[in-house]
Design brief:
Layout (H helix, E strand, L loop, with lengths): L4 E8 L13 H14 L9 E6 L1 H9 L27 E5 L11 E4 L2 E9 L5 H10 L2 E4 L7 H12 L3 E4 L3 H9 L5 E6 L25 E10 L5 E10 L2
Bound molecules: NADP nicotinamide-adenine-dinucleotide phosphate (NAP).
């Protein structure tokens, strides 16, 4: 079995930002509900996936709020390899956290009406104490790569372990760009919110991070444009690759 088909599904302001004061406004919330319905609602367009993948900063900003994990440094060695606490959750939150830093306190997250089981995506750098914490909390984990996270191995493991041929790549900009640069993104789906706040330096859809990626001109192929009920635009692109 190869890797799942990967769709980067994001909501974005008119000025290309994925975070900011436009989000909690009435216009921003109406657009977020349209975005949610396409990938997670009952009659969703993307229906073959079992969850979405997000980067560590997105998890800190939205769920763990930079809390430190409560580790037992004297914990007995955990068994080698991956740990699957809940194999059949209808929805999962695949949390990219290469070195095991997120201060989770329970094994699921809530996003609008969706409850998703947390599956940590770790590299070999995550400590025994961190894996022990995840086991105590009933959080699943997959290990991909030794010194650094192997993204391709990670998505192949997600496909094989959770029996899914589609995976939603759910940001933020740093993780999205890592996937684009690695050739691991098949479609970019953007819900363009009819709002902006003009904040200088706010996160955009794609962000090169010197530790993982570089900035490279890249082309996308427009597949479809639709107007959504609230006035948002739903834009779908294929990823063509680097251009000169
Ligand atoms: N509008 C939307 O649809 C939407 C969706 C999701 C998120 N967001 C927002 O986006 C913001 C965060 O975006 P962000 O770009 O700062 O961070 P991010 O993409 O959420 O997370 C970046 C982190 O992911 C890990 N990572 C990224 N590439 C990697 C690679 N190739 N190998 C291993 N690990 C990798 C690294 O973790 P380590 O530092 O631990 O190595 C890196 O620091 C949040 O504020 C969130 O609310 C918006």
């Amino acid at each position: 079995m190869g890797r799942p088909r990967i769709v980067c599904h994001m909501h974005m302001s008119l000025d290309g930002k994925i975070v900011g004061d436009y989000l909690p406004t009435d216009v921003g919330m109406a657009s977020q509900r349209e975005f949610y319905a396409l990938a997670y609602g009952p009659g969703r367009h993307y229906r073959d996936h079992k969850g979405w993948l997000s980067g560590r900063i997105s998890s800190e900003d939205n769920f763990t709020h930079y809390r430190k994990p409560e580790l037992d440094e004297a914990a007995a060695p955990v068994p080698e390899g991956d740990y699957i606490a809940v194999p059949d959750a209808p929805m999962n939150y695949f949390s990219v956290d290469p070195s095991g830093q997120l201060g989770w306190e329970r094994n699921s997250i809530d996003y609008f009406d969706t409850n998703a089981h947390i599956v940590e995506i770790l590299s070999g750098r995550a400590s025994n104490a961190y894996k022990d914490l995840l086991r105590r909390l009933g959080i699943s984990y997959l290990i991909a790569g030794e010194d650094s996270l192997d993204l391709e191995e990670a998505v192949e493991k997600i496909g094989a372990t959770f029996g899914t041929e589609e995976l939603i790549l759910g940001g933020g900009g740093g993780l999205n760009w890592s996937f684009i640069r690695a050739g691991l993104c098949d479609e970019v789906s953007i819900v363009l919110t009819p709002a902006a706040d003009g904040t200088k330096g706010a996160q955009t859809l794609f962000e090169a991070d010197g530790r993982y990626t570089t900035a490279v001109p890249t082309a996308f192929g427009l597949e479809d444009v639709r107007k959504l009920h609230d006035g948002s635009l739903w834009l779908r692109y294929t990823v063509k690759g680097p251009i000169n």
